[in-house]
Amino acid sequence: MICNEQPLAATNFLYDFDKVTQGIVKSILNAQKLSTPGDFISIPDADQKIHTMDPLTAGELARIRRQFISYMKSHPISD
C-alpha cells in the first residue's frame, strides 16, 4: 500500500503510526458494511484497493494491526 502523505517524523512515529492504522481499520470496517464479499475496498490516501473474499471482523483487524505495529517497532524504518 502506498500512502500519499508525508513520512512520519521519528519523534512521534509510533503515535502517528497508531493513528494512521486506526484510520485504516475503521475504513475497512465501514467499507465492508457497504460491500459484498469479493468486492474491492478503497482505503483513503492509498493507491491500491483491498480485495476481500470474506469480511474481516473488528477483532481480526485489531490483531493484524497489533502484529503490524509490533513488527514496525522491531524493524524501524531508517530516515
From TrEMBL:
Q: Which Pfam families match?
A: KTI12 (PF08433)
**GO MF annotations, alphabetized:** ATP binding
Q: Which domain of life is it from?
A: Eukaryota
Entry keyword set: ATP-binding, Nucleotide-binding
Q: Does the keyword ATP-binding apply?
A: yes
Could you tell me which PANTHER family the record lists for this protein? PTHR12435
Give the family per the record: Belongs to the KTI12 family.
Q: What is this protein called?
A: Protein KTI12 homolog
Q: Which species is this record about?
A: Trichonephila clavata
This protein's gene is called NCL1_35122
